[in-house]
Amino acid sequence: MARRAASRAVGALRSDGSIQGRGGRAGGSGAEDARHVFDELLRRGRGASIYGLNRALADVARDSPAAAVSRYNRMARAGADEVTPDLCTYGILIGCCCRAGRLDLGFAALGNVIKKGFRVDAIAFTPLLKGLCADKRTSDAMDIVLRRMTELGCIPNVFSYNILLKGLHCKEGRVIESEKLFELMGTVAER
Questions:
Q1: 9, 149, 169, 173: least buried by Cβ within 10 Å?
Q2: Can you tell me the distance from the alpha carbon of 154 to that of 172, in angstroms, rounded to the nearest whole number?
Q3: If 0-12 CB within 10 Å is exposed, 13-18 middle and 19+ buried, where does residue 46 land?
Q4: Which pLDDT does position 191 carry in this prediction?
Q5: What is the residue extent of each domain of the chain?
Q6: What InterPro entries does the annotation carry (predicted)?
Q7: DSSP classification of residue 56
């Protein structure tokens, strides 16, 4: 019986880092499995795919942003000799920082992305924009979408604009500004 439970625990981890059937370990939850998978993949080092690590990290982040940040830090300490974070990894990290209410760390992670030479996409900005709007700092979010993103060669997407519209109209009651932004979206889309 113990042998069967042990084989299930090992069998829950696939080579690509995905988790076979949530709760694959005896008595384990999906979050525990994700932590186990991440830890196992990190131990493999170069033999682990960044895709698998990112999937496990995203599963950990869904349950606990703080636990995901901790695991990212372990990955970063392991260094490029073991495994190198990619843009997706940083996107998960930025989202975790913002969900934990630490926009400053989210922006620091974004700065690290830019410093490392990754081409930033609009998805990386989404959690930062949501965090700024939630903090009623919609003007800062507008500055990012209307100016900073394009300076970085990043084109805002429909989600970027929707976050701003929701922040302006719903959270701050700035109806006229939201209407102007909506009109601007139409002119940008026509180009």
A1: 173
A2: 26
A3: exposed
A4: 55
A5: 9-102, 119-191
A6: PPR_rpt (IPR002885), TPR-like_helical_dom_sf (IPR011990)
A7: H
